[in-house]
Design a protein that fits this description.
Elements (H helix, E strand, L loop, with lengths): L2 H32 L4 E13 L4 E6 L6 E2 L4 E6 L1 H26 L3 H34 L4 H30 L3 H26 L2 E3 L4 E6 L6 E2 L4 E18 L11 E6 L4 E12 L7 E2 L7 E2 L1 E8 L11 E4 L1
Antiparallel strand pairs: 1-8, 1-14, 2-4, 2-7, 3-6, 4-5, 6-8, 8-13, 9-10, 10-13, 11-12
Amino acid sequence: MSAKTQHKSILYAILGFVTVVLLMGLIGFFALGRDPEIIQGQVEVSEYRVSSKVPGRILEIRVKEGDFVKAGDTLAILDAPEVRAKMQQAQSAEAGASAMDQMAQNGARKEQVQAAYQMLQKAKAGLEIAEKSYNRVQRLYDEGVMSAQKRDEAFANYKAMQATAEAAQSQYDMALNGARQEEKMAAQAQLNRAKGAVQEVNSYINETVQLAQMDGEVSSIYPKVGELVGTGSPIMTISMMDDMWGTFNVREDQLNGMQIGTEFDAYVPAFDKEVKMKVYFMKDQGSYAVWKATKANGQFDLKTFEVKARPVEKLEGLRPGMSLIIK
């Protein structure tokens, strides 16, 4: 074979290889170019945690994971002996304050009132005698048969008995009226304070029985029966299945005019169906989220947005964690 023929063969081989590479590149370019970009999200659901204001030991758990509960259903019962002891203390304090208030309102006992009355009568009798004696001595003094000294002694005795009668009258009035208004108000305030303490402990006792606040599904139960839980420690999580949405992380060049109120179709692989969704929330992920440089020299970057959308129509069986695909 001549050198010229070899040269042509090599040239044809190179041209053939280049042609194959170009064809493969074109095929790949058009094939990839026709595939739409995919945005993947997942189904989320509103949840609330069931927890107690008081520490205690789990006495009973009346539901299981996966159970549907309604508002007011009993979920768990705790044993809190310290709270029961505080209730006894609070009730005893209330009883004591109530007795003091009753005593202040009722005033003195009947025997005390009777004794004050008798002292008043005695003082009045003494005053009457002292007054008569003084008048008699005064007449004798006016007639000149009684010395001024005797008249002054009778007058002093009369004034003393008058003061004694007034004091006895005051004691009797005080016995009738009972405690002062300020003492009654203080006793009433102490009683109200004791009642407030009982109500506070009652609220703690109510916390030993945990009730469902809203309808939902029991998604997680954390402690076991017999375990201790602290104040505010979660006992279980309830998922409100009626409040469900999808969340997506969308780069801003993929938003394509998407805004609050926009409706779109999302594919649910679990059911091999599409569900129509409506955007109700959009927010940029902030500087901590992944950015994408659009050019090698970094003229500007593309931010990622969190987009939330709710299903327009309910899809039976849709559950939290299921994937949602936007093409």
